[in-house]
Each structure stands twice: as structure tokens, then as C-alpha cells.
Amino acid sequence: MYKDKDPRADLFAAAAKPPATGLIAEEQLATFYDTAPQEERDGSRTWYVRGCNFVLAYSETKEGAVLERKGQADEYVLYLANPADRAVVEWGNEKVEVAGYSVTFIPPGDSRIVLPAGGKLARLFTIASKDLVKACPNADAYDTPRQHIPAFEPWPEPVGGWKVRQYSLNVPDEPGRFGRIFRCTTFMVNALPSQVGPRDPAKMSPHHHDDFEQCSLALGGSFTHYLRWAWTTDMGDWRDDKAIDVGSPSVLVIPPPVIHTTRASSDGNNDLVDIFCPPRMDFSLKPGWVLNDADYPMPGTR
């Protein structure tokens, strides 16, 4: 399914078997750029959308904004795409200045994110944050259980114990490595290289996942997401193909086992982030792909 030298080519070499019959779920789409936010507070605006295991919160904040979590159940993620933005993360006795163009993992418990100059940010939470699940306009989208997705289980705690960990996204590409991948106990985040101009239509990468969702967060440019539901032996699973055109910021949550690929379509920079909850084992097993693997062990390794 992969063209040329795509580094993912060997991951799905044995994935030609037909998907199991049963519940074939619909995608979850959120276009923040043309919908009202779910929350407006002190001049800051926040949109929410959920997947099976997670909630994504996208915020546009004013100077001095504070985003606080009390009694946070598990580790969560702060993503700052703009190099000009910055934040201060307070947790326990720590007060960590976070630069823009970074991903930061924040431990469970009480914490605050302060935006001294305001800015745009995404946060990622598991569905253990029940208050945030309720805030999602698609909160009831998973009332029918997803047979293809195992129950969420966190990965092992980080080496050296809990602390605020930030990682710069300013990482050069390397041949044979796919994107810029970071993981924690709850999420895997892959900041894909910016696509300048439309993607070559002769170099697409259609593929599917058997048992986990892919969340694609568009933060710049425009995209067309192509979705194809496989023909199983049960016609009740069949769906028409879809080509979903989106701008930024937006989110598409792709359910398994839908075949999917995405084409950047604007003439400028097209910026996409792929998100998985919990982390992907196949990516984690690829040597050198997870840039912070020394900090976060895989299951069964400690």
C-alpha cells in the first residue's frame, strides 16, 4: 500500500486479511474554524472533541490565561505548535517554562498552564477526565461499545518518577524514521513534517489499523481525508467511500478498520499531527522512531 520508500512499509506487510465483521463505526469530525467553541471564559475559547479513549481540547487564549486541572486522574499532554507561543506549567513544587513548538507531558494531580502572552494550544486527556468528556459535542458517540478497540490501559510510569517533561519539535528529519514521535503513559504524538504545497497524488499511503483509532489534528493549511470501509462478509458493515475536505484547525478521528489516507491541499504549509491513545506498539518497536523512549518504557520492559 505504500509508495516508494515510505518508512512504514513493513508495518502492514501482513495486514492483507479481511477485517472482522461486526461494528464498523463512523468517523468523528470537528472543524473548530467554523463552529462555536464549547467553552468561553475570560476571553479564551476552547473546543472539545472525543475519541474512544481520549478528549482533545483546542484553545485560543488571551494574555495571562490560566488553564487549571484539579485532581487530574492521569498524565496529559500540552501541544504548542507556534514557536512564538510559550507557557508556564505548574505541578507540585515545579514551575516549568515551556517554549513554543513543543510537546509537554504533565503528570496526574493538580496542575496549571499559564499563557503569559496568550496563544493557541491543544491538550490531550484520556476519558478518565469525565468532566471533559461531558463537554464534548459528540460525548455520546461511543455509547455503543467499540468491539474493535481494546479497553484503555496506561503504559508504565516514566523512568525517574513523575515530573513535567517537555520536548522540542525542532528535530531534523532522518532517512528511515517516520515523523517526530513522542510518547508518555497515555498518548503517542507524531508531529509530521510540514507539507509545503499539495501532496503529490501519485504518492499516497492508504492503510488501515485493526484495533485502534487515529486522531489527525490539522493545525495549518487544508487537507482531504479519504476513507474507505472494507467489504466484509456482512453487508451491514459496508459504507460509501468518503472524501472529507477540512481546513485548520480541525480534527478527524478515524475508526478501525477503515482504510484511510490524507492529502494536503493548500499551496502553503500544511501541518498535521497524528495522535494515538494509548501509544502504538508497532511504532514503539521501530528503533529510533520514538524520540523520548529512554524516558517512557514500553509495557513488559521494567
From TrEMBL:
Q: Which SUPFAM superfamilies match?
A: RmlC-like cupins (SSF51182)
User: Known InterPro entries for this protein?
Assistant: RmlC-like_jellyroll (IPR014710), RmlC_Cupin_sf (IPR011051)
Instruction: Please give the superkingdom of this protein's source.
Output: Bacteria
Query: What Gene3D superfamilies does the database record attribute to this sequence?
Result: Jelly Rolls
- What's the protein here called? 5-deoxy-glucuronate isomerase
- What organism is the protein native to? Aliirhizobium smilacinae
